[in-house]
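Hi support team,

I've been running sequence recovery on a batch of backbones for a student project. Most finish fine, but this one hangs at about 90% for roughly twenty minutes before it completes. I'm not sure whether the input is malformed or the queue is just slow. I've pasted the structure tokens below so you can try to reproduce it. Let me know if you need the job ID as well.

Thanks,
M.K.
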């Protein structure tokens, strides 16, 4: 399979096209990854139903048994658990960093070690999250898996 990237000035929205003769295993894998990456999370914001691409979510957090998705512009209350978030969207780059938080690795700017063996995660929008040390090994393993997958 080959990839052709073309820059088009003046587009109002980026788009992808997939041309195929037949759907083989390689094509199924590409479609599967795109479906997950291009899917939306749904919830409420200011008492209105909203749907936001999972790629825009910086992180998910649970407080008092309520799950929230945070973007640059809003905090969306969702009706699913963090476990469901991971089950549905982990292939979009989501990794658990504590019992109550999941981060989008594509929104991380950098990591910094902490005195208490925890890791501070700096997001691209300037926010900071704290990864508990019990999740560090799993986080690093998952980060390596994502890096490997993106190299292919």
């Amino acid at each position: 399979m080959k990839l052709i990237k073309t820059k088009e000035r003046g587009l109002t929205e980026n788009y992808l096209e997939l041309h195929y003769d037949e759907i083989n295993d390689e094509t199924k894998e590409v479609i599967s990854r795109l479906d997950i990456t291009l899917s939306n999370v749904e919830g409420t914001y200011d008492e209105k139903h909203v749907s936001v691409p999972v790629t825009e979510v910086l992180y998910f957090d649970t407080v008092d048994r309520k799950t929230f998705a945070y973007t640059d512009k809003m905090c969306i209350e969702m009706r699913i658990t963090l476990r469901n978030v991971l089950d549905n969207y982990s292939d979009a780059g989501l990794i658990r960093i504590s019992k109550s938080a999941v981060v989008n690795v594509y929104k991380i700017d950098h990591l910094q070690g902490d005195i208490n063996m925890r890791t501070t995660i700096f997001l691209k929008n300037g926010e900071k999250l704290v990864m508990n040390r019990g999740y560090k090994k799993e986080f690093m393993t998952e980060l390596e898996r994502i890096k490997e997958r993106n190299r292919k």
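--
Follow-up from support: It reproduced on our side and the slowdown came from queue contention, not your input. The two ends are 12 Å apart (CA to CA). No action needed from you.
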